[in-house]
Write a structure and sequence with these properties.
Length: 72
């Protein structure tokens, strides 16, 4: 099996779940996505597809649409 490079813009990391259910987001991922201490992250779950942590900009856009604030 050959070791192919990942497609541009696509990444994969692993994280271990601690005893309190916490995970540490790898440093490279935090830097790449601008995740800082104190940030609030949105976790989306789907029984069939698993968990997703979308970029915080997506949360901002989504909340503006939900609360009708996108045109203000």
């Amino acid at each position: 099996m050959t070791n192919k490079p990942h497609p541009p813009g696509k990444y994969a990391w692993t994280a271990t779940v601690g005893e309190k259910g916490q995970i540490v987001i790898p440093k490279q991922a935090r830097e790449l996505f601008g995740i800082c201490p104190g940030d609030t992250l949105l976790l989306l779950g789907d029984i069939e597809r698993g968990l997703a942590i979308p970029p915080k900009e997506l949360f901002d856009d989504w909340s503006k649409k939900v609360f009708g604030l996108e045109d203000r």
